[in-house]
Amino acid sequence: MTSHIMPTYARLPVTFERGEGAWLWDIDNNRYLDAISGIAVCSLGHAHPAIHQAICEQSAKLLHTSNLYNISVQEKLADRLIEKSGLENVFFCNSGAEANEAAIKLARKYGYERGISNPSIIVTEKSFHGRTLATLSATGNAKVQHGFAPLVDGFVRVPYNDIEAIKKVLAENDSIVAILVEPIQGEGGVNIPAADYLNNIRLLCNEHNLLMMLDEIQTGIGRTGKFLAFQHNNILPDVCTLAKALGNGVPIGACLAGGKAAGLLTAGMHGSTFGGNPLACNAALAVLDTLDRDNLVDQATQKGDAISAGFVVALAGIKQVLEIRHKGLMIGIELDSPCADLVPLALSHGLLINVTNDRVIRLLPPLIIDGAQITQLVETLSSLIKARFA
Ligand SMILES: *Cc1c(COP(=O)(O)O)cnc(C)c1O
After folding, report:
1. Domains along the chain?
2. Active site residue ranges
3. Helices and strands per DSSP (H, E), number in the chain
4. Single pTM value for the model
5. Which residues line ligand 1 (CB under 6 A)?
């Protein structure tokens, strides 16, 4: 049968019907261990009872009224995000790309207020910020941009994890108003920068009066072992974008701002019909409650360390494995050659993984993964990697 879906994804030949925790079942009732969580979205696993309850209760009361009116559950969610992040206010939207669009608009507005008529944002190579025109222009991947020129102006690109390159741009270009980076690059290959990279960006932003903007769409909501990845560095950015795990599968994005970024947008300057609607906000509140109640953010550290240590032992001596890196449950295993074929192979062994940047196996297991599932993940995947190089 012909599909009437635009073929924007090369989909794997499987259709899932239901899930529970870290397990998924397909329409033929085969079971799979989910080590990618719908790309870092379902951090609480599938069919979590607290999320189910939050959606049911809210849908029985009110789904949508629009932002023409006050929305109490949106206010409550904003309070929680501010309390947990240390920032000052929030714009709600429906996806990561939209959250970054809001951040980009904040940066431009900030520039105009400083009298800069052609404001530019420093972004990095191998970054990923989304698929809308502005966010694909900010993205450091030619494949994402190919075919969609003219791109949106106002981005200056530097290598990731290279403070000197940022200093050089700042010395030569007085139109820079912001720096936008991921604390750890996800799509770019689970690239973990130097421990003081974000601290140095913070210092440069202070020195040059720039907005420090962090795309925490993949790293946020506990994934790396802190609620937000910048909390490993004891700093505060001016802007922080969230989406993915915030709703555990209910679409929601957020752009958080603090300090000089918090007062830039006023009535009529930005908006979203669905953004911050009661259903999405109640699901996100349940996500935050569950993370706290079950102490899942600390567990991300312990479980990530256990998984990484398991792979270090299981893959010892295999010279084609170049590096195993992780922070919490954001895990990359870099091989010396392209390995996208491991994805369908793992699928046929009942395991969902991802490969990004051609040769990095990326694992983003749910924060609720248990010890037996961790063992199964390490054993299944390392035996597939070993068999490949035997
Ligand atoms: C997924 C992702 C985005 C885009 O989010 P969408 O919800 O797909 O628009 C942006 N930035 C990062 C770091 C991401 O991982």
Report:
1. 16-48+295-388 (3.90.1150.10), 51-293 (3.40.640.10)
2. 128, 215, 244
3. 12, 15
4. 0.98
5. 95-97, 100, 128-130, 182, 186-187, 215, 217-218, 243-244
